[in-house]
Amino acid sequence: MFGKKNSNEGTLPIEKFEDSKDSLGVSLGDSRPDDEIVNTSPEAVSAYQIETLQSLTPPIITKPSILSQGFEFEGIIRSAGPMIISGRVIGKLAGRDITVENEGFVDGEITADTLTVKGNVLGDIRCRELTVGPAAHVDANSYFDTIEVQRGGKISGILNKN
């Protein structure tokens, strides 16, 4: 019952065996039809491994990580998907696509592929593409490949093109 393991549990009965140079055929009991033989040739095993690895590959994250208005965070935030900051962050942000909304405030380091600032950022910025919105205020040492400052946006600090 509980805590005891049946001696047959966890083993698969061998129902059929075919002798061949390159493969060994084994039926896997209830998990497959009785007459289906599992091919264990190197090609079949390799294809199975590739299929298994593909099924284990983590999905691309498309839903954004959102730090809402009124939320305050101190520390390090990393995200593989988009990140939207409407609250207050003191620390480090790292991600592919980060947006600091109008209500958002970041004091620290931001590392991103794409950074859009609509609110306030103090500290250091490292990104490929930096967009400073019309109501934004950025006071940071900024390292970027491209920059767009929209009319009304304010940026100060050291600006470095990568």
Automatic annotation (TrEMBL):
| Region span, Disordered | 1-37
Indicate the family of this protein: Belongs to the bactofilin family.
Q: Which PANTHER family match?
A: HYPOTHETICAL CYTOSOLIC PROTEIN, POLYMER-FORMING CYTOSKELETAL PROTEIN
The protein's name is Polymer-forming cytoskeletal protein
Which organism does this record belong to? Polynucleobacter paneuropaeus
Q: Sorted alphabetically, which InterPro entries does this protein's record hold?
A: BacA/B (IPR007607)
Q: Return any one Pfam family short name.
A: Bactofilin
